[in-house]
Design brief:
Distance between the termini: 79 Å
Number of strands: 36
Largest sheet: 8 strands, mixed
Number of helices: 1
Strand content: 35-45%
């Protein structure tokens, strides 16, 4: 008989819960030192709304609920609401209704946690018969990018009204949520019914609780990596601080390199540096109302190491007239990287000795060089140098001319399509070579010419001029041509 009575008590208890329109779910234990930071009971809500501010907040004017997106969906009130998660002896009253179509909108809860940690969010939810069958939860700690990292509940299937369920989103172990002015929660809707023209999801008694940060002493023992070297235009691995005590805000002096930023709430340095910067000391200060602590970290922003994509040292040139000179070394293809002396007339290419050590790589000897014989005003040197898979291109070479009969002017241009040659944004477009044995090193910088990056058709042209260029003797000489770049 006692067993029968016990079973009846259990059954009656379950029935009473369902009659009370509540089905508790994923209940967790909340730290007793937690306080109610934000709370919506929606009991003053009526009609269609676009923004719903918190009914209770310890951070007045900072918290809101919006229904962002497109389409005909909107928010309004429904009645009666739910008792589940009702606080402060609130009655069921009214609740918030997010109407279909809901698959083109998101319910956005702006809930800053400034001054609080160990955050837990709870709310009652249900749906109408044709409301969206799935709610998906994510959050942001930077106010922009939404993630689900370490969030144990990311999907929930609400029951049909009048039964409501309690959903708990436990952020207590996600430290980035603590003391965060940018914290937001997003609820997305899906399922075959979410795109309908009728139906809705319902919410009531939304609460956020957290443990107050105990600001009884200034923070101490702040530290970061002492020395940091980053590459320009490459996202850095964020630098996170280590600190003892509670921090209300972080700041840095002087300003970080362009593209990097310090999060004033978390102290994390992140971003993509977009300008070069020598090694510079930055003082980071962590503060609260009782004082501050500082740490000095060094940051350098440098170019990525240049790779030798193509290289001609010419030390293996054969004797006699040359029609095509392929690269001595190439990370892409020695055959696609080649030099020709295009045009008409009696001019031709051959080897010359001695060459030069100017711009020589790998401790190469002077060896041989490439000679471009007059008449050169009817010809041009065409250097085919594809940059497929590479960026920030820099071309260098050594050059000179023979006595006073070699062409006295070299004009430089480039092609991005393999046919049309331009000088746009090229800082060096002409040069007057010295007389052998004085070789000059020429640099053609394409780092600010985006079209030169990752380009299989990239070519450079050298055109010769001056009264000597039409002569029947004399020549210009090239040696140690390098094409260097960063890997994509």
């Amino acid at each position: 008989m006692k067993k029968i009575l016990l079973i009846l008590v259990i059954v009656l208890t379950y029935i009473s819960c369902t009659i009370d329109r509540e089905i508790p779910a994923n209940i967790i234990t909340i730290d007793p030192t937690s306080v109610l930071v934000h709370y919506w009971n929606f009991n003053s809500l009526s009609g269609t709304v676009t923004t719903v501010n918190a009914d209770v907040s310890l951070l007045p004017g900072t918290s809101s609920i919006k229904y962002n997106g497109s389409g005909a969906g909107y928010m309004d009130s429904f009645s009666p609401g739910y008792d589940i998660n009702a606080l402060n002896n609130d009655i069921a009253g009214t609740g918030l209704r997010a109407r279909n179509p809901s698959d083109t909108r998101s319910l956005l809860l702006t809930v800053p946690t400034t001054g609080y940690k160990s955050i837990i969010v709870q709310f009652a939810t249900a749906k109408s018969g044709s409301g969206a069958t799935t709610q998906s939860y994510s959050y942001t700690i930077d106010g922009t990018s939404y993630i689900t990292n370490d969030l144990s509940t990311i999907v929930f299937n609400p029951t049909d009204d009048p039964l409501a369920s309690l959903v708990t989103l436990d952020f207590s172990q996600i430290t980035g949520v603590n003391n965060n002015s940018n914290f937001k929660i997003k609820i997305d809707f899906s399922g075959t019914t979410a795109s309908g023209t009728s139906g809705n999801n319902r919410f009531d008694n939304v609460s956020l609780v957290g443990i107050p940060l105990s600001l009884t002493a200034p923070p101490s023992n702040l530290s970061y990596n002492t020395t940091n070297s980053f590459l320009i235009n490459t996202a850095i691995t964020p630098l996170s601080p280590s600190v003892t005590g509670n921090v209300a805000s972080y700041n840095v002096s002087p300003n970080l390199p362009t593209g990097l930023a310090l999060d004033s709430s978390t102290g994390i340095i992140s971003g993509t540096p977009t300008s070069l910067s020598p090694a510079t000391d930055y003082t980071i200060t962590a503060s609260n109302s009782f004082g501050s602590t500082t740490f000095i970290t060094s940051i350098t922003v440098a170019n990525a190491p240049l790779l030798l994509v193509h290289y001609w040292n010419f030390n293996s040139l054969p004797t006699g007239t040359l029609n095509n000179v392929i690269a001595d070394a190439s990370l892409i293809s020695t055959t696609s990287a080649n030099i020709k002396y295009n045009g008409t007339g009696a001019g031709y290419m051959d080897q010359y000795t001695p060459g030069s050590t100017a711009n020589a790589q790998n401790s190469d000897a002077a060896g041989l060089g490439l000679r471009l014989r007059n008449p050169s005003d009817t010809r041009n040197v065409l250097i085919s140098s594809p940059t497929t898979g590479y960026k920030n291109v820099i071309v260098r070479f050594a050059t000179a001319r023979s006595s006073t009969s070699g062409a006295s002017v070299q004009n430089y241009s480039y092609s991005l399509d393999g046919t049309n040659f331009v000088t746009t944004n090229l800082s060096t477009t002409t040069f007057n070579p010295n007389i052998d044995p004085i070789y000059d090193s020429i640099t053609l910088d394409f780092t600010n010419i985006a079209g030169a990056n990752n380009n299989p058709n990239f070519k450079i042209k050298i055109v010769f001029a001056g009264i000597e260029a039409s002569g029947t003797s004399g020549n210009n000489r090239l040696d140690n041509i390098t094409v260097q770049a960063n890997q994509l």
